[in-house]
């Protein structure tokens, strides 16, 4: 199983000029959450050219479908249209796990998130991250236990005027 | 979250305009606009009514205040996103080193 290196995943997406928004736990960390995460969640633009670029990035990342019984994942062939035909992809890459969701819970997808997303500079890469209010909205709608545990802190960060 | 944020969030999730919500809640579009702009703070009862008019409910419960964790969050909030991610990556590297050390200790 690959060691998790979230910025390496983002670097490949940026190198392929993929339009996407980071959401989920890693977005929470960027906004100041103390809770860790083991994957990068992104919502890509569903435009045809962007999906083609995403497919190229996934090739470079050596992305496979994540499954419980196979640490390296299951190889799969993809192109822009096939990626766009499935709403959620749970992948494992040479830099760790990557989840792609075209319409995360509680949101209306890329355009919805991009409207309030922020461009932020990280140690190794510049990336686009969902607004904290959208990260919260998505986690509230997903309603998973791990989300419920992190939500009080994220809400308080928002209330106290998150500087990100 | 502020009360007005719940109202706006519920309305957007329901795909309603301010006028549609106003009709459902028996008020005016301008009254909804004032609430959503934070110019008028609804009472808790009114907040619940407005959220319910959108087809949702609010579950309010008291939980212990976790100030110890908040102290660490305040430290993170004083940092830039770049510094926060660097710190997270340091934790990841420590976790990786820790796993390797445990594996070695168990004899590979």
Can you give a write-up of this model?
The complex is a heterodimer of chains A (164) and B (108). Chain A is an alpha+beta fold and 164 residues long. Chain A has one domain: 2-Layer Sandwich (Beta Polymerase, domain 2), CATH 3.30.460. Chain A has helices spanning 6-15, 24-30, 48-60, 80-84, 110-114, 132-142, 145-159; strands at residues 20-23, 39-44, 64-67, 70-74, 88-93, 96-101, 118-121, 126-129. Chain A has a 6-stranded mixed sheet. A two-stranded antiparallel sheet of chain A has the order 7-8. The N and C termini of chain A lie far apart (32 Å). The model of chain A has no long low-confidence stretch (mean pLDDT 92). By secondary structure, chain B is mostly helical. Chain B has 2 domains: 3-53, lambda repressor-like DNA-binding domains (434 Repressor (Amino-terminal Domain), Orthogonal Bundle); 67-105. The radius of gyration of chain B is 23 Å and the shape is elongated. At the A-B interface, helix 6 and helix 7 of A face helix 1, helix 5 and helix 6 of B.
Q: If you average the pLDDT of chain A, what whole number results?
A: 92
Tally the helices of chain A: 7
Please provide the ordered H/E string of secondary-structure elements of chain A. HEHEHEEHEEHEEHH
CATH class of the largest domain in chain B: Mainly Alpha
CATH topology of chain A: Beta Polymerase, domain 2
The CATH architecture of the largest domain in chain B can be named as: Orthogonal Bundle
Helix/strand/pairing category of chain B: mainly alpha
Order of helices and strands of chain B: HHHHHH
Shape of chain B: elongated
Main sheet characteristics of chain B = none
What general outline of chain A do the C-alpha atoms trace?
globular
Which stretches of chain B are poorly predicted, pLDDT < 50 over at least 5 residues? none
Could you say how many structural domains of chain B there are in total? 2
